[in-house]
Design brief:
This protein has one domain: Glycosidases (TIM Barrel, Alpha-Beta Barrel). The protein is α/β, with parallel strands linked by helices. It has 17 helices and 13 strands. The chain is 40% helix and 14% strand. The two termini are 25 Å apart.
């Protein structure tokens, strides 16, 4: 059965058919027009931090080639486009003391051009690129970063909110906290096992809550927009379903990944009970600091309920088994005492971590419905990687979108999940963080060796455009 072959369309008439990008990964212009440094500028300029010492200095050069990106968006027939703002392009030192009007002008043009083409912008305020000036003060481990983010968010809501109705405050705080502050694999490259990730995650939640409350109080009555944060999550199942230890480890895995940020916002207003009890037990047994996992206090704006929809980034699934960390070990994985492994029956695309499991998305959507008060859900990222020689006739990726959207339709039709949109990652090949340009997720190929960085549609782009055309046109007829 094909999602295109269904006579009865399962997607709502206002379903968001989109693709996503982020500022650092596509814009380039890293020091153009008074832009300030971001942590990814600093991190990628170091040696050995990124594949072949590549950087996003130029990336897709979208800062000057925006019209080419717009052409790609129109070719796909997207109804929505998810983008992010560069905090340091708008506020070079991270604060509102100096607003860079050239940055404001750029994003005004992008937003206005999208709307002129009947494409709805979905805007992310923070997609991994913290201003370096704020990192110099402690970054996400500094309590004052929440105040700086709130001021930045208010500026953006005031400047662009008359035209933007869908906002995301943060992208994947889990990745930023763990890879950036525990493993050191992402900017800012901090390796502080078992401590800084929790502190950074806590301050990101504080920052998000402040931004949501600011929007709710100052802008929602007039602008009538919606605000959330994009959470990444794998679906997880026990390696041995008959093992109570593996079942419990899987619950811990879900608590320490998706639950870390979903529980405070959507469930209880606090971190998952399993997460807090596990960390506190290790603190007591091994003499670790008692305050490693911070506490939400009444003097701060409440975190619970600060999302108007659930934004999910899903890529893969995992099997989980129980492990026991050596005494004295302080690490994120040690706290959860669970290890994730790939099921050999799952095909892997491109990079070793990315198993292709479309039905894992359906299961995760149902899990979110059941545990997070049945929210409206936007799938804000989902994609299929290509490495090695460029294959413009990428039939596997086209089939991936077909299979994945069929599972999404089952979640809607059979499981009653309120899915409101789907965004492919990504509109075009771009700078994929520590993998540089070696991994390609695009619906359009970008020739990074060509001076004009030419964009060419993959076959999968044509396939995705066909899915959109068939489903969107059917929806329009049923309105």
């Amino acid at each position: 059965m094909s999602i295109c072959d269904k006579r009865e369309n399962v997607f709502p008439h206002d379903f968001a058919w989109g693709a996503a990008t982020s500022a650092y990964q596509i814009e380039g212009g890293w020091n153009a027009d008074d832009k300030g440094l971001s942590i990814w500028d600093t991190f990628s300029h170091g040696k050995g931090t990124v594949f072949e010492d590549q950087s996003g200095d130029v990336a897709c050069n979208s800062y000057t080639l925006w019209e080419e990106d717009l052409r790609c968006i129109k070719q796909l027939g997207l109804t929505h486009y998810r983008m992010s703002l560069s905090w340091s392009r708008l506020l070079p030192d991270g604060t509102t003391r100096h607003v860079n009007q050239k940055g404001v002008n750029y994003y005004n043009k992008v937003i206005n051009d999208l709307l002129a083409g009947n494409v709805t912008p979905v805007v992310t305020l923070y997609h991994f690129d913290l201003p370096q000036a704020l990192q110099d003060r402690g970054g996400w481990t500094w309590a004052g970063v929440a105040d700086a983010f709130e001021a930045y968010a208010v500026l953006c809501f005031r400047t662009f909110g008359d035209r933007v109705r869908l906002w995301l405050t943060l992208n994947e705080p889990y990745i930023c906290a763990k890879l950036g502050h525990e493993d050191g694999l992402f900017a800012p490259g901090v390796r502080d096992p078992g401590v800084s990730a929790y502190r950074a995650g806590h301050n990101m939640l504080r920052a998000h809550a402040r931004a949501w409350h600011a929007y709710d109080a100052l802008f929602r009555p007039e602008q009538e927009g919606l605000v959330s944060l994009a959470l990444n999550g794998d679906w997880a199942e026990p390696l041995d379903p008959r093992s109570p230890q593996d079942v419990a480890a899987t619950e811990r895995y879900m608590a320490f990944t998706l639950g870390w940020f979903a529980s405070p916002v959507f469930m209880t207003g606090d971190y998952p009970a399993t997460m807090r009890s596990q960390i506190e037990a290790r603190n007591l047994a091994q003499g670790f600091p008692r305050d490693r996992l911070p506490v939400f206090v009444d003097t701060e704006p409440r975190v619970l309920g600060t999302a108007d929809f659930f934004a999910l980034n899903y890529y893969t699934s995992r099997r989980v088994r129980a492990v026991s960390s050596p005494p004295g070990t302080l690490s994120f994985k040690g706290d959860r005492e669970a290890e994730d492994v790939l099921d050999p029956s799952w095909p892997v695309c491109g990079v070793p971590w990315l198993a292709v499991v479309p039905d894992g998305l359906r299961k995760l959507l149902k899990y979110i419905k059941d545990t997070c008060q049945e929210p409206a859900i936007y799938i804000t990222e989902n994609g299929f990687a290509q490495v090695g020689a460029v294959d413009l006739e990428d039939s596997q990726r086209g089939q991936f979108y077909q299979d994945t959207l069929l599972e999404v339709s089952k979640a809607v039709r059979e499981d009653g999940v309120n899915v409101r949109g789907y965004f492919a990652w990504s509109l075009m090949d771009n700078f994929e963080w520590a993998d540089g340009f070696s991994v390609r997720f695009g619906l359009f190929h970008v020739d990074f060796a060509h001076p004009q960085l030419t964009r060419t549609m993959y076959r999968s782009g044509r396939d995705y455009a066909d899915i959109i055309k068939r489903n969107y046109s059917q929806s329009a007829m049923k309105k």
